[in-house]
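Internal QA ticket QA-208
Title: Verify multi-chain structure generation after dependency bump
Assignee: T.L.

Test input:
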Amino acid sequence: MKSIILVAVLAGVSVGTVQSADAQVVVEVAPPDAYIASVTPEYYENRPVYFYNNYWYYRDHGRWLYYRHEPGYLHGRRAYWGGRGGGYHGPARHGYYGGGARYHYRR
Amino acid sequence: MSAALGCGGSNTPPANEPGGGSADVAEAQPAQPGSGLNEDESTSDLAAHARHHHHGGFAMFIAMSMDQINTTPEQKGAIEKIRTDLWAKMEPAHDAEKIVLLAVADGVASGQFDQGKIDAAISDVSTKSAGIHDAITDSLNQLHETLTPPQRQALVDKVEAQFSVWHSANAPEEDKEHGHLAKLAKEYGLTQDQVDKARAAYEQAIGSVPHFDRAEADAHIKSFGEAFTSDHFDAKALPTKGELNAHMAVWGINRMVKLYEAVTPVLTPDQRTKLADNIRHHANSQPNEG
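Actual output:
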């Protein structure tokens, strides 16, 4: 599951604050290591970014961040990276045996 | 747990943008270690690779990552040269590992493992792996000079991810759903009884093997990452030396050997033949340099 949607009923929890009765907290899960290890990044704002599960992710001091609103440049790059919805892994993805990618191990 | 709160609720500092602006970003929850290993053919192959090829340690992770950092045509010549050099420097360790794999394949096929031959070959892998770091320092320095700062960061991202995959695939405990034994069960049609017996034998055997110290690798990742993403990098100045690669190789190979030794007695002759062929495939594979 790539996104975890938690619906928390806050009434009675936050006393003295003005909040809605319900709040929706959306937590996106960073790309798995196996994905980062096997996909080619795009570059944006002088850093590598990775298209995963319909979001663009990048690392910053050990944390994974994502753009909640897709920058225009990256939106334009979706065509190259697939742009066919969630979970697309990009055309430059490599396996390790067979196929044409480099450093596959071959017999 | 950090989360992206609905509109305007993020407590994550905005990322810097050209011109001093900010982007609307949020922090993601870290993925589970080892997750995604069997997500598709590519990651499944990656896991299979991580279970059988340990000889190069971090040098192998770097070489494997070089193709996937989106280099430019102008960088191609330099990258090719560095890649070729890296694989060449790892070749002695690769060849030593091949001897282990072939000995293990013979053991699986016959049901008799030549422990003396396997132990001697593992010792040789250890020696050869330990020499890799010093052998590739010039190549790493050239790689740093060749890459742009974002590409250096991408390489560090990927090396860290490669290590995490390797570490998960070679954890002492066997993941019941995604571990090596589960993979063998699926691939060769093992019964639950076969799996249970193999697991019990493996757990008993692996207990006597000195485990890999992840802290050693984490320290290397940190120092390598900081150094490689800086403007000035000298691989010779890295605090971690060749021992780390040797430790990784010895642990990974020992784990693999113990697992195959544990599973072999419960296999049928046909299953043993097929498994031995698969191990020979890994033994005889070569890095694809283009």
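Spot checks passed. The first strand of chain A starts at residue 3 and ends at 9.
Status: verified.
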